[in-house]
Amino acid sequence: MESNAQLNVLLLGKKRAGKTVSGNTILGREVFMSEKSSKSVTRDVAVKSGTVNGSVTVVDTPGFFDTQLKPEELMTEIARSVYLSSPGPHAFLIVFRVIDRFTEQEQQIPQMIEMMFGQDVLQYSIILFTHRDQLKGQNIENLTEENCALRHLLGRFHVFNNEIQNSREQVNDLLQKTDSMIEQKGGGHYSNQMFEDAQRFRREEEKRRQREILKEEVERQSENPEFKNFLTKYQPTLRLSTFALGRNMVAGEFIGMCIGGAVGAACGLIGGPAGAAVGVFVGGAVGVAVGAIVHASAK
């Protein structure tokens, strides 16, 4: 990808795997609530953006196997992550703690991700191990070689030391691996019918918001003192034309309105601007009536 391209990243993994702190590490600042506090573990989808060799958007998700989160709640938040990451993530970062044993739960995660996001999703995935500072000289390949579920992803994994979030080298290395993976897939983001539908619904949402913003702006203008002053000044000019448009006048009525309005305005000038406005409207109305009689007589 080009350095100024938009990169969308989706973080997935178990509770306390280090997703949130990894999002902060990628963006180089504390933008997501840290998982260090038991009260601040991510239970809702969060989206943050920043500039890291281009524009990067990170979507943080609730942890898998979180007993405090009902299945319906997790389903809703996963759907929200799809919605907010549309038209689709360029990379799914599947997060594991490097010190954790790969239990049956961990081995189920890739299959769960395929079930949720589609069978090709792992081709756009990178394993991200966290807590590198606790690796203590062990080789990362040795920790993963016995895991059959992850073996086909080897070659696309990365390790973070989240204790040094200001280390840009580890982030740049991750982004290089991400760029390489994206290029191998043709340079685009991951998508399927679910993400395409999410994009369509988001576009509809944006159109609705624009309509609501326009409606609110019109309502604010109607209460705007400056607009009221402007309206008062130009009422005589606009009133007759809008009156004509509202009546769908025939030619005789329109000509009569114009002549009557002009005469009425001239007479009304004696009373100042207010009198002129009244004269325009009254004279125009009389002109309309006369014009209508003439039109009827001509038939």
TrEMBL record:
Coiled coil: 164-224
Boundaries of every AIG1-type G domain copy: 4-199
One Pfam entry name: AIG1
Keywords: Coiled coil, GTP-binding, Membrane, Nucleotide-binding, Transmembrane, Transmembrane helix
Keyword GTP-binding included in the entry's annotation: yes
Any GO MF annotation of the entry: GTP binding
Keyword Coiled coil among record annotations: yes
Segments passing through the bilayer: 249-271, 277-298
Family assignment from sequence similarity: Belongs to the TRAFAC class TrmE-Era-EngA-EngB-Septin-like GTPase superfamily. AIG1/Toc34/Toc159-like paraseptin GTPase family. IAN subfamily.
Protein name: AIG1-type G domain-containing protein
Organism: Sinocyclocheilus anshuiensis
